[in-house]
Specification:
This protein is of the alpha/beta class. Helices cover 45% and strands 16% of the residues. The protein is built from 16 helices and 13 strands. It comes from Candidatus Weimeria bifida.
């Protein structure tokens, strides 16, 4: 992947889904205490092994390190980072990026680090975590070389007459799964088209579903990438899923849930990311983390009142403050008006920031209350393997399961509103006719 391409396919949320994978469920505590013995180049591994086989400039490593450090652990003491990056310049950027953030890792580059043909660290079946944001829809991958490199537990995707894989998405997906140890988890970004592609891709996908290790699928909106408007999907595998979840997959359609940064960029705010995490927590049965988030909202809002009450109170405060600002500016001499307005704008902005938090709290609490998971039309649904394979044709597209959110009733009577619009239109037409008549008379008087 070229440096330009690496930048183009670097999403704004690169690594921000780390919490989805690094969080443990209450049934999976053993996974976090386990120490493993590895051979070959992995002999120095400490507690947990994380591999990014398409590491680019190291965004996944940095975000993971931040998450682990924030949790009160030292990333370098609890994680061993391994990366593969074909482009040597990008690999150097990765090492520099990690060093700046106080991280160390083993990064391979050059031809030996071409993941399609090499397992450069001999980590197949040995990773606790795999996280990646690989290039999508790569073509011209040599099928024989890829097959010889193994790590394809479900077989090869389609091969063309030139003995090439013309779309390598399912090579990546197979690798991410194959690298995991018996308790491992994977989280990666993939083109949206991969969730329901046909042919041998579908066969591989069915085999994946049958393992019971597909855990969570999240659809992401357009414009989450710096220079591309591609929609994508976040995939999560978990080989250590508790028995109660083996037959289930959580689907989240987050395409309508984001914050607009500007005309070409969207992102998840910190609170939105926490809300998405909360859905996963409830699916995994981790109600205590959900309750802790509810408490965090109350603390941030500085009130124990209901979120809806807080939201409405803030809206009224903002409305009152705007009215107060208008009156104050009008009562101020002209030369001081700009300063007065600026002071009020700052106060209103602070209230709006708090209102945004309140709205996110309402968004979450209205759906899940004190911590009970529920399928929400248009947002999330849990499906079993039989439904996925037999009824949905092995599709892993969240939209195929969650459906469409019901339209909110705005309280406006349609027929009455149409009558009002019709009267408004007639009035405008009459006004237009009168105006045209006046213009015509004026033109005649001018002799035109």
């Amino acid at each position: 992947m070229s440096t330009a391409t690496a930048r183009a396919y670097q999403p704004r949320f690169a690594g921000r889904f780390v919490p989805f994978e690094m969080q443990k469920s209450p049934q999976n505590k053993a996974f976090y205490g386990q120490r493993s013995t590895y051979s070959g180049k992995a002999h120095c591994i400490k507690d947990r092994v994380l591999l990014d086989p398409a590491c680019g400039s190291g965004g996944m490593f940095v975000q993971t390190g931040d998450f682990v450090n924030h949790a009160g652990m030292q990333a370098n003491d609890t994680m061993t980072f391994f990366g593969q990056e074909k482009v040597e310049y990008n690999a150097q950027l990765c090492l520099m990026n990690m060093a700046v953030h106080g991280l160390t890792g083993v990064i391979k580059s050059g031809d030996e680090a071409n993941t399609f043909y090499h397992d450069a660290h001999n980590l197949n079946g040995k990773c606790d975590y795999v996280m990646a944001n690989p290039p999508f829809n790569v073509d011209k991958v040599k099928a024989e070389s890829a097959s010889a490199a193994d790590r394809l537990p479900f077989g090869m995707p389609s091969v063309n007459k030139k003995k090439e894989v013309s779309n390598a998405n399912y090579l990546w997906i197979s690798y991410f799964y194959s690298y995991l140890n018996e308790h491992g988890r994977a989280g990666f970004v993939m083109a949206s088209s991969a969730t329901d592609s046909s042919g041998k891709d579908k066969n591989i996908r069915e085999s994946l579903i049958q393992t019971g290790h597909v855990d969570v699928m999240i659809s992401v909106a357009n414009n989450f990438f710096y220079t591309k408007s591609l929609p994508c999907t976040l995939w999560f595998f978990d080989k250590g899923k508790p028995e109660a979840l083996q037959d289930k997959v959580l689907f989240i359609d987050a395409r309508n849930y984001y914050t607009v940064v500007d005309r070409t960029l969207n992102e998840w705010s910190d609170w939105q990311l926490k809300n998405l995490n909360a859905i996963v927590w409830l699916y995994r049965g981790d109600v205590e983390k959900y309750k802790a988030l509810i408490s965090e909202y109350h603390k941030a809002l500085g009130s124990a009142e209901s979120f809806d009450f807080i939201k409405k109170a803030l809206e009224k405060k903002i409305e009152d403050k705007r009215r107060e600002a208008k009156e104050a500016v009008e009562a101020t001499v002209k030369k001081d008006r700009k300063s007065v307005q600026s002071d009020f704008d700052e106060k209103i902005n602070e209230l709006n920031n708090t209102l945004t938090i309140a709205k996110e709290a309402v968004w979450l609490y209205e759906k899940f209350g004190d911590g009970t998971y529920a399928d929400i039309p248009g947002l999330c649904k849990i499906a079993d393997r039989k439904t996925i394979i037999e009824e949905k044709g092995c599709s892993l597209t969240p939209g195929a399961y969650v459906g469409v959110a019901p339209e909110e009733d705005d309280g406006v009577d349609f027929n009455e509103r149409m009558k009002e619009i019709h009267h408004e239109l007639l009035a405008l037409q009459k006004e237009n006719d009168e105006l045209m008549e006046t213009i015509s008379k004026n033109m005649e008087e001018m002799g035109v």
